[in-house]
Amino acid sequence: MKLVSLGSLLVGLWQLLKDHQLDAWKAALTQVAGLSGWDSKVTRPENMLIEEIVKDISRKLNLNHSFLNDYQGMIGIEKHIEQIQSLLHLESEDFRVVGIWGMGGIGKTTIARAIYHKLATNFSSRSIILNVGQEVERAGVYHVKNKYISELLGEDSTSSGLSLKSTKALLVLDDVCHSNQVKDLIGTCSNFGEGTRIIVTSRDMQVLKNAEASKIYEVKEMSFKDSLQLFSLNAFKQNYPIEPYVDLSKKGTTFEVGATEMAEEVTASDGDGK
């Protein structure tokens, strides 16, 4: 049997492709080359390897299921996800920190969790730490750091000799209160592997600047149109108020700074369609 190298076959095929097709193929092959898999020499016997593969696939399917169930249909959430995803530049293999900034209760955590669940399967490992400021105050910075490291690398990371540089990770640090918390938790980009993305949410713009976020996304107040739609969905189970409650609903749908998505859901649900 005559053996032909994969490279020579690809060269012959590329000569038949148009430029835009060639670029797409190159990008896809580059992405595939950066994906991590399972080493049968590390995980033995074979049944344990198969079990690990099944667990990983199940975890990824559950993440996608969670996103579909919990976040799709939320008013305005897709717009936030699309804009933040563009700031993350997932096609790039560099290390990148992106900040999410906004007042308390405006939806930073909800958006960060939605991004996490939607994009998690693009990464070899992932971790999300909620209420970082409170967790650091309660248990200390090293507890929080060890928590996300164990989630990114697995409980046996110490014995296996794995490091953060060996994995393309997605890390979300939610509600960081002080600049020193970011510094203590993530250190420098040299600690992480290529393609790693870290999302930090905070009410303090300076925290995100000190975290050296390449981009900072501001979560602004919900527009009157979206706010009215949200109120109507919860109060009347449709996108617009029913007669004769149109004017009353518009008056009750606040466009003030303090009006949050959660507050409107509670207010509208209390109405129970009445």
Automatic annotation (TrEMBL):
GO molecular function per UniProt: ADP binding
Domain TIR intervals: 15-75
Alphabetically ordered keywords of this record: Signal
Leader sequence residues: 1-24
InterPro entries noted in UniProt: Disease_R_plants, NB-ARC, P-loop_NTPase, TIR_dom, Toll_tir_struct_dom_sf
UniProt entry tagged with the keyword S-adenosyl-L-methionine: no
GO biological process, one term: defense response
Superkingdom of source: Eukaryota
Stored Pfam families: NB-ARC (PF00931), TIR (PF01582)
SUPFAM superfamilies in the cross-refs: P-loop containing nucleoside triphosphate hydrolases
Domain NB-ARC: 78-239
PANTHER family: ADP-RIBOSYL CYCLASE_CYCLIC ADP-RIBOSE HYDROLASE, LEUCINE-RICH REPEAT-CONTAINING PROTEIN
Protein name stated in the entry: Uncharacterized protein
Source organism: Vicia faba
Lineage: Eukaryota, Viridiplantae, Streptophyta, Embryophyta, Tracheophyta
